[in-house]
Structure formats: structure tokens, C-alpha cells
Amino acid sequence: MGFFFHTGRYFMMLKSVFAKPEKHRIYLRQLFYEIENLGVNSVGIVVIISLFMGGIMTIQFAYSLANPLYPKALVGLGTRDTLLLEFSSTILALIMAGKIGSNITSEIGTMRVTEQIDSLEIMGINSASYLILPKIIAVVFIFPFLYILSAFFGILGGLLTGPIAGVITIPEYIEGIKWLFVPYYITFSIIKSLFFGFLVATVPSYFGYYVQGGALEVGKASTKAVVNTNILILFFDLVLTRLLLT
Amino acid sequence: MIEVKNIYKSFDGKDVLKNISIRFEKGKTNLIIGRSGSGKTVLLKSILGLFDVDSGEIWYDDRNFLTMDQKRRKQMRQEIGMVFQGGALFDSSTVEGNIRFPLDMFTRMTAKEKETRVAFCLNHVNIEKRAFKLFPSEISGGMQKRVAIARAIALNPKYLFCDEPNSGLDPETATVIDELIQNLTHEFQMTTIINTHDMNSVIEIGELVLFISKGEKAWVGTNKEILHSSNQTLNDFIFANKLYAQMRRDVEEG
């Protein structure tokens, strides 16, 4: 029963979110704020994680493919495809669900328990739309950029780490990066990142918007939001992979 | 004027408001008092439309709030100012930004006009100019309440609601807030409804006092009449405080 209740209420919330805004200019101002708050402020962590993961993947591929029969370029190819297909879209979305998702739930949840949302409602403002719509647009907009950024720095991480670790040379790695490249992988992952961006913005918003109680409940709601967003990301990853890649 | 007629409200089959009828007058500070859990917050939130009542009528002057469609309700809310118990100021905005927010949202004022209106509202609640750029977390509880009052009057509302405006304040600041609300009510001729259990507020500014007990209207009168009340439930509530019990004895002894 709980599942149907939450699903129904989630879609009811989305109906309110996509209602006509009271004043477009104010929403636009909020949108720019959210792009900076949720997007630009995530660039640092995305770059760091991607650089390290690209490097680690390169070393692990080199270790797994340590057979003279395998061409060395396979290390670059493996790193590239793992980054493009899964890491920079799905794994990054899971990480962002933790960073951005908990931020969204705690912000909206705190506004709920301190009556700031009631205050908006009493002023005659559609609080769901005012608070959540700019976040959805901001996150959906920035996720493809974060994907591209992550893929680029992941590949760069491999390029820097491989030669330093002595597992592959720069020409071999670059040859692998170019080898059997399928541009559709990028299209596929950008489509996935749009879906994941929507989930990362809406699911934590839902848990924050309907929180009841005090600080403790806001904390619990943040945890629930991250767990549920992660499960949904993995589920939709499976569905989208089946639909778009096979 | 706000009038409620035969309001009933229940939660999970439990009656919280039972047949409440009252007329809150314009230009007066109307108080709702009662023990914790008596239903006063539910009544306030029902009048505001935050809770849907089971039956009854709520009139804002000649407009029946409950039969309005969502669009008209939304428009009408711009005539309502609300001061929440905790202030409910927007943490991410400065003091100035909090007051400007409803002006940005609902008016076509120029930047200069907004600036003037913000200064007017903040001056009315005695906030100094140096505090305009501070964030809510950087000001005291009393100042937060005053900023909340300034925000509530920003759109020049006809109706002002205050939910326990004195909670968490020292007696001196609480008196300042009471006087401020009463002065603004008289000056702008608003219909003000205050939800409180602060007996100082009742004695100081209770121009009309509604006492609710177990979800029912138990007594209505003024702050002058309250000291002579023969309603036992009301007396048990008010004179639990020894100071007021002594005050009543003094009044009885002339």
C-alpha cells in the first residue's frame, strides 16, 4: 500500500510542480541560482572522482589484460567504454544522488519543518512549483555537461596514470581511445543522464516536501531520498540499457 | 471582518473543532486562547485554508472562502499577512530580501518603489537600517519576529494572522511585539487574529478573546470582561497563574 501511496503522491506533486509559474522572472532567477548551487558547485567533485577512477580503471584493465597476446590498446578501449557507457552516467548519477539529493531533501525539508513552505502557500505561491521546478530544470540541464566533463577527465586520468604506473605508454593508450569508437555510446549515455537528472531532482524533492516533524525527520528523509533515488537510477539504467542498447 | 459559522473539523474520526462560530472584528486584535491541544491552531489553520474543514462557513468580509475556486483563493491570499511562531523567514534571503519577496512576486513596483516600501515596513517595526543586509540567522529572535511582522504587512493586507507571536521571547520583547501588532492593527485597520496562550497578551491587547476548550467555543469576551468571568473552565485556565489569581482578587475587592 505504501508504494502506491508514495507513487500517487509523487505524481500529484509533479502535477503541482509543472503548473504555470506565478512570475517567470523570479523563477528564472531561482533557476540560475540552482544551476550554480547544484551544478557548478558539483564540478570539483566530479573532476576529482573522474580523474581518480579513470586512473584506477586503467591500472586494473592493464592488470587484467596482462597477456602478451592482447594488444595494449585494449586498456585504453576498456577504460573509454566503461567511462562512456556506465561510470560517467550511472555511477556519477549515484554519487550525485548523494551530494545533490541530500542537499535538496535537507533544504526543502528544513523549509517544511520551519513553516517556510506554509508561509509561501499563505502568500498565494505554489510552493511545490517555486521550490522544485527550478531544481528539476537545473539538474536535468547540468547532468549532460557533468557527464561529458566526467568522461573527459576520466580518460585524462587514465592517460596520466597509465604511463606513470608503467602499465601503458601514451601512444598505446591514445590508440585504444580511438579504437572501435562508437559515437552512439555518448548519445545513449546523455539520454540516460537526462533521466537520472530528473530522478535526482524529483525524488529527493518529494521526500523533503512531505517531511513531518523536526531535524531528526529531515535527516531520516535525506537518507531515504538517497537510497530510493539510487534504487530508481539502477532500475532505469537496466530498462534504458535494454531499450536503447540491445 | 472574518466570520466563521458552525465549523467542524476532525482528524481520523476524532473531532478537533466542534460547532465553532465567531465574528472577528476589523481594526481589533482578536485573540484565540486555550490549552495546548484545545484546537486553536487547527482553527487558525482552517480559517487560513491550510486545513479543509468538514463543514461550516468561513467569510472574509462578504466572500465565502470555502466556495471560492483555487484561483480566487490564491488572489485572496495576497490580502492575508501571516506571522508564524518561529518567524518562518527565508534563510537564504537577507532581512531586506524577505520583505521584498512578496513585492517581487505580486506587484509591478519599480526597484525604487520596492526599496521605499521595504524601508517603510522595516521602520514600522523598528528595525535599524544596518540590519537590512543581515540574514535571519544573524539577528535575534525578537528581531526575527519583527521582520516577520514587517513581511506580513508588506502587501498592505486586510487580514493579519499571528500564531503564538510571543513564544520564546523574554517578557519585555513580548510586550513590544504585542504593542506593535496592536498598533499596526489600529493604524492599517486590519482584522487581526492572534493565536496565543500568553496571558500577558490577553490582558494587554485582547480586544476580543475567544476561549476554546476541547474543540468547543467555551467563552467570548474582552480583556476587561475576562477578569470577571464566571466560566469555571476559563477561570481554571487563566487563574492557574497566581499573579492573575491575585489580580482577580484585587478586582473583586475593588
Description of the molecule:
The complex is a heterodimer of chains A (246) and B (254). Chain A has 246 residues and is mostly helical. Chain A has one domain. Chain A is built from nine helices and no strands. The longest helix of chain A has 41 residues. Chain A is elongated and about 70 Å long. Chain A starts with a helix and ends with a helix. Chain B is of the alpha/beta class. Chain B has two domains: 170 residues, 3-Layer(aba) Sandwich (Rossmann fold); 65 residues, no CATH class. Helix content of chain B is 40%, strand content 24%. In chain B, helix 4 packs across helix 5 and helix 6 runs parallel beside helix 7. The longest helix of chain B has 18 residues.
Overall pLDDT metric of chain A: 94
Quaternary structure state of the chains depicted: heterodimer
Average pLDDT over all residues of chain B: 90
* Coarse shape of chain B: globular
How far apart, in Å, are the first and last alpha carbons of chain B?
36 Å
CATH H-level name of the largest domain in chain B... which superfamily? P-loop containing nucleotide triphosphate hydrolases
Low-confidence runs of chain B: none
Helix proportion of chain B: 40-55%
Number of alpha- plus pi-helical segments of chain A: 9
Count, helices of chain B: 10
Q: How large is the radius of gyration of chain A?
A: 21 Å
Structural class of chain B: alpha/beta
Largest interface: A-B, 15 and 22 residues
Could you name the ranges of chain A where pLDDT drops below 50 across 5 or more consecutive residues?
Answer: none
SSE class of chain A: mainly alpha
Number of domains of chain A: 1
